[in-house]
Amino acid sequence: MKNSQNKVIISCAVTGSVHTPTMSAHLPLTPEQIAEQAIEAAAAGAAILHLHARDPVDGRPTADPAIFDAFVPHIRDATDAVINITTGGSTRMTLEERLAYPLRAKPEMCSLNMGSMNFSIHPAARRITQWQYDWEKPYVEGMEDLIFRNTFRDIRHILKVLGDECGTRFEFECYDLGHLYNLAHFVDEGLIQGPLFIQGVFGILGGMGPDPENLVTLRTTADRLFGRDGYRFSVLGAGRHQMPLVTMGAILGGNVRVGLEDSLYVAKGQLATSCAEQVRKIRRILNELSLDVATPDEARTMLGLKGRDAVAF
């Protein structure tokens, strides 16, 4: 299982829970917009679609299963992409809220943050003087005093109720080097079996910085913990660091993640008009590097997924 010899999986994180409507008019908020952008991203080459939900009235993050149900089945019917449902939700959601839809949907894949951490973009509020909705400013500023919680017990619970009982596999989100060691702990406990899909996250305030050296450190540490053939890795670069870091990750033998959850831009000072625009850009870069892009079914084989017919939506 040598990553450098395999095709590159493109993941697309469509909307997330961090950015707010004021930050970009192109951020998908309604079920129709989320579905449209996800389907376009899949057509552009994304094999995995990482999905959050938004309140269609004002765009705030929500864990409401009814809202997920308004777009997830539509995406399933329109594309063969792997549907990856967040278990992270937002820093304001309880574990029960975050798991409400994944436990109902039993998807092929879910994201799983591998530790509790400070997670914030509160400095971004200083650059905005006029907000579209009243909730946005206190939401962004309030991140300064919030922690994203995923304790060892929380992670163990998610692995049991989603992994063991639903057959869901995970995108293990590692925002810091210690998260790799947390992952190794659960592997050593026998609670996680390979193939591992590690998502290195760089550039979030509270986690690893976007320095290229950190990417190399993450890669070499994962090699020591799991063996080069014991995992697959992917790279997520936040904000303006998106394209340089994911390109470096691909050169190092990894996979890539783009999307408006991770960055609102497609180039310096240029807002992306859609997630598909970012997918098309990274696909062009991969093609120039003579790297082949994985189809959804190839991604399923590479990651050992249970298949689209085994989900509950």
Write a structural description.
This protein has 313 residues and is of the alpha/beta class. The protein has one domain: Alpha-Beta Barrel (TIM Barrel), CATH 3.20.20. The chain is 38% helix and 17% strand. The protein is built from eleven helices and 14 strands. The chain is globular. The mean pLDDT is 96.
Give keywords:
single chain, 313 residues, alpha/beta, TIM Barrel, eight-stranded parallel barrel, two-stranded antiparallel sheet, 11 helices, 38% helix, globular
In short:
The chain has 313 residues and is of the alpha/beta class. Helices cover 38% and strands 17% of the residues. The longest helix is centred in the middle third of the chain and has 15 residues, at 152-166.
> Can you tell me the number of structural domains?
1
Radius of gyration: 18 Å
What's the arrangement of strands in the largest beta sheet?
Answer: 1-2-5-6-9-10-11-12
Strand content: 15-25%
- CATH topology, anyone? TIM Barrel
Largest sheet: 8 strands, parallel, barrel
* Share of helical residues: 25-40%
Number of strands: 14
